[in-house]
């Protein structure tokens, strides 16, 4: 066996072993493989292969390795093979054509250039036979010194330098050649007089003649220029100045600047060209030479700029060795020769300047997030110039900040993220709105800011992590919004808030179309399939949750244990996420160890006091924000609240923090008060579900002691005083919720006894007897607050506390009435005493008058601009945008005019429900001029619904509702209040369309009590129906009964009308019951303090049409249409009748109530009468009421506002509805005039021609039954006949219908007149038209002349004007006017003698 070679073997040993191997005949471990050379021919490759095989020398490959080259190694391909790459779908014929090199293929692509306008000039005479060869050594110095500024190649710089060196001789010689006469145009330029600068330049500056489109455009341009010069020479200097002034006044200033810049570029050269030396052939001028070089250099630097005057920059010479900030030493490697182009970056930056360009400039920010103006020169030591692009400008762009945030240097990452946080803060505040184009927040989010912050949270450096937390807080949290929500917490139902969910976006379910319901994906499955980017684009908070942001925040709190600022930022972020929705709050509670960490670290039951006012760590100390987080989480739902109280130890926290006084917490005074306030608010939220009431009994002595001390607040400063007042109000909210819960005990006890297998909440542990002792203390404190209004020092505190006291008193007496221990006589006496001692003095007090007088100025309903966003608004991240509201009004602050009047009216409505004898005593509040003025301003208002306005609009809706309820009670008993009954009714109708989700109970109460009340419709009692009937006599209608009788009948059926609407709103019953539990204080039945998602008002603006729409949806066109009246649901005729009656009342007396419904929507809703069945419109009451409403809709003002081009709400277009009406009319109309008027209304000339084409094209058969007379038509006939019809297809259809007999005067008189009028106007029109229209006009006139039907012929030819009172519907000529007769004669070749009338 042969041995393997060793490293120690010599060359002789290796040769000997090789001989032994060959002699033994063993197989080699390598094989010889020859690969053909692709760059040589096949024959040559074969010969070479045979030759090389003899030499046994070639490529060696090892057997154990694969023959193919590994995929990671780039394969070397033939250059020719790369050009022969083919694709599967490539056309072979196209490939052959592309590679065809035949002479015909070459010649077919030759395109001759147009040289007709190019002047021919002789070549310049030079002393050498060939151009001089450029050598780098020769022009190196010149190229460096005189090369123009800009990024240019070495060759271009050499060419420019050579032109600069030889420019003078070349220009002079070429000037001489031009003077000899090489070009006529140029010889004319030299011999022109020098009267003006334009003349001295040698030609027009702005005109080039390129747009003339003629061969000798240059000659024509010079002729125009010479004419202009001759006209200028003929004018005096004053005339020239006057014309110049007129031109400057008319032209755009930017155009004037452009012209002056062009003049300035050529003026220096023109001065030298006017010298005597310029006119000599062989003379030279250094001034001209310098001008030419400057012009050429300038043209080279203006390659991509449209405005030449902006880039005339000063060319800086190359940097020298003396200018270097650090002198190079000889011992430095490779620094023996200074290379200026590589050291340009060490030069001082040029001064920034504002470019007068139309292009938007990139925004740059400093480290504080402040926008830096482009022309502001800042020193470089501030660190704002460390970026590659535009190094002379200070500040960083958003792109550069994003790049820095992914740097490998920790400091750069921290600095970039911190700067982004400052930019976000200022963007939320609206500081960039007037300076930047577009939204900074939207741009950042679209660029992936949320992903950047999420990545930064995972950074291992604590500084970067802290900066990311701060930036995330700046993105999500608004301190002003939280402050406003905390201020509104003690208001009436202020505990309930809207979830901050983005507006729902409808996804296109294209994949689910045509599938069964069982096979369609659920919303949860679709949500899980979405990517993080898609989720974050629609909802920022949901996107952050999908990116597992909560576990990372938990890790930072639990493991990293950051600084106090980061801890507070994280708690604020969690609060904002909890406000997003109930689902988000549940995710926070479900996150492992997150809430355990928050409670154990930041809400300890015992702690060591901090050594300083600003502790270095918040761990182990109580934090008010942590308690607020628990409160917001508890507001998300009763189950979440129960988890906090039971699983997370919330009851122990309540007991621990409620008992201790703020002064005993060993915390800073403000933080201690905030902690005490938040724990009371958390207790109140739990009591709002009927939970934690057992703690109330345990802590009763402490709470009563706090209540008794509440009327004597004392504080060292104003800030501490406001915190103390917040704490007292939170205590009163807690006691109010406990009182309402105790009032439900007997009801739940009875329900538990009577429940037979149905679910019923258990009765709460607190009884009514447990809260009766609070009432005397609260009444005493209430009286003290009213007395304190007379003192200026305590007035502000009293006004803040009064609403909470009044709300508790209302809760007490509203629950007292339903208790078994209720004593009516004693209660009435207490109410009389309360009225005389507290309520009446409060109503008459000047402070109360001041509040009511500020209703209108602070109203968000009357002033929608107050709720406009102060900063940038992002649809995917909704907020309240309270910064502008807090700065422009007091309505959202602690001194708001809303809570006190609302609480007072809430109590007054409860008192007057118990003691009706006290109603008249409160009329002064309603009859106040400021209140009446405020109500009057609300009638025509149309507030917008959004997250920015809804939270405050909801509280203003409470105020309006309570005012209306009290006014409704006062109208029957007070004649002065009754005078304003119509005002109250109009406000109630407006409020119905404004109420937001969660206010369904208020809408139900308004409909049940106020809206359909006889007492608020005084028009029915003072002869208004008769006045309406007299007004109808002035109209031309003769087909329907008087409106007065219809109105009188409607007033008699108001209870039935109310029942009809309440029946059709029965689908809202679950929402009404949930809202009722919240408004009536039935705390054990409340499921969440989050209101329903904000999707718009509770009722649509067109709710008066609701019965008609419901009837149409159930039995109308969508179900096939054409149903018999017997098949309609029971009571359908009555429902339609009641709906039409109510609509007639509103249109007659409350026209403002329907201003939000456009006329086209009214017409579309009214059309449901015809579409919902085959003969519902034939019922007498339905037809009479529909006639009356149709006349209202066709009054001149309403008719002008009727725009059928816009799609009615809920429909794709009005044309679709009209098509359905056409089909229904042909099927079931029976020539009904009312239905016919509906069909004629859209055929007016000003509306789209498609509806007229549909009638005369697809549905021409309906013309036989469209027998509406001219007297029945409620629309003036001129609306149909003027202006002249310009649709040629429609005119041909008119003519065909008349000739074929489909349209006759006795069948369809209205459209007969319309067709005759338009055809007559068309055939005798003298307007200039296209050839096609002119040919059609002549053809129609010729065909009309040869008609055999003499009557129709005379009607078309002799038509004069529409005339409704005539028998024909129009007047005719005795004979054709001379102009028309001559026109007819020119067409038909005969003379028209006239026609019969």
Automatic annotation (TrEMBL):
Keywords of the record, alphabetical order, are: Nucleus, Transcription
List each copy of the RPAP1 N-terminal domain by range: 223-266
Q: Where is the RPAP1/MINIYO-like TPR repeats domain?
A: 1104-1329
Superkingdom of this protein's organism: Eukaryota
Q: Which residues form the RPAP1 C-terminal domain?
A: 362-427
State the compartments where it is located.
Answer: Nucleus
One of the Pfam families matching this protein, by short name? RPAP1_N
- Location of the region described as Disordered in the Swiss-Prot/TrEMBL record: 26-93, 162-196, 262-313
- Biased amino acid composition, Basic and acidic residues: 48-60, 287-301
InterPro entries from the UniProt entry: RPAP1/Rba50, RPAP1_C, RPAP1_N, TPR_RPAP1/MINIYO-like
Q: Name one GO biological process term.
A: transcription by RNA polymerase II
Bias kind Polar residues: ranges:
267-286
**What family does the database annotate?**
Belongs to the RPAP1 family.
Q: Which protein are we looking at?
A: RNA polymerase II-associated protein 1
Q: What organism is listed for this UniProt entry?
A: Culter alburnus (Topmouth culter)
| The organism's taxonomic lineage, starting at the top | Eukaryota, Metazoa, Chordata, Craniata, Vertebrata
């Amino acid at each position: 066996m042969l041995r393997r070679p060793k490293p120690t073997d010599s060359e002789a040993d290796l040769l000997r072993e090789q001989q032994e191997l060959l002699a033994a005949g063993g197989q080699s471990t390598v094989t010889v493989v020859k690969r053909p050379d692709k760059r040589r021919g096949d024959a040559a490759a074969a010969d070479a292969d045979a030759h090389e095989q003899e030499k046994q020398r070639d490529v060696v490959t090892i057997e154990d390795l694969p023959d193919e080259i590994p995929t990671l190694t780039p394969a070397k391909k033939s250059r020719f093979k790369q050009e022969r790459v083919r694709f599967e779908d490539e056309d072979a014929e196209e490939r052959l054509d592309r590679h065809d090199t035949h002479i015909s293929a070459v010649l077919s692509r030759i395109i001759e250039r147009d040289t007709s306008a190019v002047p021919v000039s002789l070549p310049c005479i030079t002393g050498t036979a060939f151009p001089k060869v450029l050598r780098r050594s020769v022009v190196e110095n010149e190229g460096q010194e005189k090369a123009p500024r800009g990024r240019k190649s070495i060759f271009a710089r050499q060419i420019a330098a050579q032109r600069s060196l030889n420019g003078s001789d070349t220009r002079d010689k070429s000037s001489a050649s031009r003077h000899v006469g090489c070009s006529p145009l140029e010889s004319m330029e030299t011999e022109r007089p020098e009267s003006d600068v334009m003349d001295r330049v040698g030609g027009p500056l702005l005109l080039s003649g390129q747009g003339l489109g003629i061969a000798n455009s240059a000659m024509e341009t010079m002729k125009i220029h010479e004419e202009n010069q001759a006209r200028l020479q003929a004018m005096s200097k004053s005339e020239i100045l006057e014309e110049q002034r007129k031109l400057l006044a008319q032209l755009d200033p930017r155009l004037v600047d452009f012209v002056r810049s062009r003049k300035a570029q050529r003026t220096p050269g023109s001065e030298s060209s006017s010298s005597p030396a310029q006119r000599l052939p062989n003379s030279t001028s250094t001034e001209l030479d310098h001008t030419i070089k400057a012009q050429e250099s300038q043209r080279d630097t203006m390659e991509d700029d449209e405005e030449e005057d902006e880039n005339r920059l000063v060319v800086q010479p190359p940097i020298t060795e003396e200018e270097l900030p650090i002198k190079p030493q000889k011992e430095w490697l490779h620094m023996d020769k200074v290379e200026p182009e590589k050291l340009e970056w060490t030069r001082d930056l040029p001064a920034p300047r504002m470019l007068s360009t139309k292009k938007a400039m990139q925004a740059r920010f400093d480290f504080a997030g402040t926008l830096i103006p482009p022309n502001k020169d800042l020193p470089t030591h501030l660190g704002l110039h460390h970026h590659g692009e535009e190094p002379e400008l200070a500040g960083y762009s958003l792109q550069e900040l994003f790049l820095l945030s992914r740097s490998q240097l920790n400091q750069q990452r921290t600095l970039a993220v911190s700067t982004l946080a400052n930019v976000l803060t200022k963007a939320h505040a609206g500081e960039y709105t007037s300076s930047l184009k577009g939204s900074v927040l939207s741009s950042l989010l679209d660029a992936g800011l949320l992903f950047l912050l999420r990545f930064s949270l995972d950074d291992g450096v604590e500084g970067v992590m802290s900066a990311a937390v701060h930036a995330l807080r700046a993105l999500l949290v608004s301190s002003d919004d939280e402050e406003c929500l905390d201020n509104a917490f003690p208001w009436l139902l202020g505990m309930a808030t809207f979830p901050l969910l983005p507006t729902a976006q409808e996804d296109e379910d294209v994949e689910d179309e045509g599938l069964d319901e069982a096979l369609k994906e659920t919303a949860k499955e679709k949500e899980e399939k979405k990517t993080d980017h898609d989720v974050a684009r629609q909802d920022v908070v949901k996107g952050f949750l999908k990116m597992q942001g909560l576990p990372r925040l938990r890790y930072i709190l639990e493991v990293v244990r950051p600084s106090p600022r980061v801890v507070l930022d994280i708690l604020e972020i969690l609060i904002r996420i909890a406000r997003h929705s109930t689902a988000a709050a549940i995710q926070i509670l479900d996150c492992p160890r997150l809430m355990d960490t928050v409670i154990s670290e930041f809400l300890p039951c015992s702690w060591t006091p901090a050594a300083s006012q600003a502790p270095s760590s918040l761990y182990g100390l109580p934090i008010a924000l942590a308690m607020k987080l628990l409160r917001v989480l508890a507001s998300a739902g009763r189950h979440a609240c129960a988890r906090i109280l039971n699983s997370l130890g919330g009851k122990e926290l309540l007991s621990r923090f409620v008992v201790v006084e703020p002064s005993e917490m060993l915390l800073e005074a403000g933080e201690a008060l905030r902690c005490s306030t938040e724990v009371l608010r958390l207790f109140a939220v739990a009591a709002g579900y009927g939970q934690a009431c057992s703690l109330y009994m345990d802590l009763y002595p402490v709470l009563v002691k706090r209540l008794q001390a509440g009327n004597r607040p004392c504080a060292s400063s104003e800030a501490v005083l406001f915190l103390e007042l917040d704490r007292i109000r939170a205590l009163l909210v807690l006691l109010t919720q406990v009182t309402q819960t105790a009032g439900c005990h007997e009801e739940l006890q009875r329900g538990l006894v009577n429940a037979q297998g149905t679910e019923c909440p258990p009765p709460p542990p607190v009884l009514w007897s447990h809260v009766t002792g609070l009432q005397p203390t609260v009444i005493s404190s209430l009286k003290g607050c009213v007395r304190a209004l007379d003192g200026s020092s305590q007035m502000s505190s009293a006004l803040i506390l009064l609403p909470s006291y009044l709300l508790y008193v209302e809760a007490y007496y509203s629950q007292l009435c339903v208790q078994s221990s209720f004593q009516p006589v004693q209660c009435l006496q207490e109410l009389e005493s309360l009225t005389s001692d507290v309520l009446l003095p409060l109503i008459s007090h000047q402070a109360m008058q001041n509040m009511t007088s500020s209703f209108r100025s602070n109203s968000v309903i009357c002033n929608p601009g107050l709720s406009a966003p102060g900063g940038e608004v992002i649809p995917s991240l909704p907020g309240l945008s309270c910064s502008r509201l807090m700065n422009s009004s007091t309505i959202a602050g602690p001194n708001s005019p809303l809570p006190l009047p609302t609480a007072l009216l809430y109590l007054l409505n409860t008192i007057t429900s118990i003691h009706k004898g006290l109603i008249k005593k409160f009329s002064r509040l309603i009859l106040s001029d400021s209140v009446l003025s405020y109500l009057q301003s609300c009638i025509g208002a149309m507030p917008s619904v959004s997250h920015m306005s809804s939270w405050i609009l909801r509280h203003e809706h409470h105020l309006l509702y309570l005012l209306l309820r009290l006014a409704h009670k006062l109208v029957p008993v007070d004649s002065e209040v009754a005078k304003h009954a119509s005002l109250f009714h109009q406000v109630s109708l407006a409020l119905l369309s404004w109420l937001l989700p969660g206010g369904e109970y208020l809408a139900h109460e308004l409909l049940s009590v106020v809206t359909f009340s006889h007492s608020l419709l005084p028009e029915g009692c003072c002869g208004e129906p008769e006045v309406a009937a007299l007004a109808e006599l002035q109209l031309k209608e003769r087909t329907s009964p008087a409106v007065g009788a219809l109105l009188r009948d409607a007033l008699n059926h108001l209870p039935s009308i109310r029942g009809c609407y309440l029946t059709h709103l029965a689908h809202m019953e679950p929402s009404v019951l949930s809202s009722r539990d919240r408004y009536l204080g039935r705390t054990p039945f409340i499921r969440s303090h989050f209101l329903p998602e904000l999707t718009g008002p509770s009722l649509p603006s067109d709710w008066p049409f609701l019965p008609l729409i419901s009837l149409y949806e159930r039995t109308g066109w969508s179900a096939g249409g054409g149903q018999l009246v017997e098949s309609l649901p029971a009571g359908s005729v009555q429902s339609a009748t009641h709906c039409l009656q109510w609509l007639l009342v509103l249109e007659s007396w409350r026209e403002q109530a329907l201003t939000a419904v456009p006329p086209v929507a009214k017409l579309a809703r009214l059309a449901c009468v015809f579409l919902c069945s085959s003969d519902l419109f034939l019922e007498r009451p339905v037809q009479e009421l529909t006639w009356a409403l149709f006349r209202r809709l066709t009054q001149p003002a309403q008719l002008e506002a009727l725009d059928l081009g816009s799609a009615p709400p809920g429909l794709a277009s009005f044309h679709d509805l009209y098509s359905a009406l056409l089909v229904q009319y042909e099927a079931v109309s029976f020539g009904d005039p009312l239905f016919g008027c509906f069909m004629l209304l859209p055929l007016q000339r000003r509306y789209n021609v498609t509806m007229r084409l549909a009638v005369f094209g697809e549905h021409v058969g309906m013309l036989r039954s469209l027998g509406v007379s001219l007297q029945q038509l409620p629309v003036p006939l001129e609306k149909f006949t003027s202006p002249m019809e310009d649709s040629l297809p429609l005119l041909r259809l008119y003519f065909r219908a008349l000739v074929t007999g489909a349209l006759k005067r006795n069948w369809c008189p209205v459209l007969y007149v319309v067709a005759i009028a338009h055809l007559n106007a068309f055939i005798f029109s003298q307007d200039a038209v296209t050839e096609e229209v002119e040919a059609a006009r002549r053809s129609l006139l010729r065909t009309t002349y040869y008609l055999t039907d003499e009557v129709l012929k005379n009607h078309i030819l002799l038509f004069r004007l529409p005339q409704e009172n005539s028998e024909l519907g129009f007047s005719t000529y005795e004979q054709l006017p001379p102009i028309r007769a001559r026109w007819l004669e020119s067409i038909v070749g005969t003379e028209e003698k006239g026609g019969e009338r």
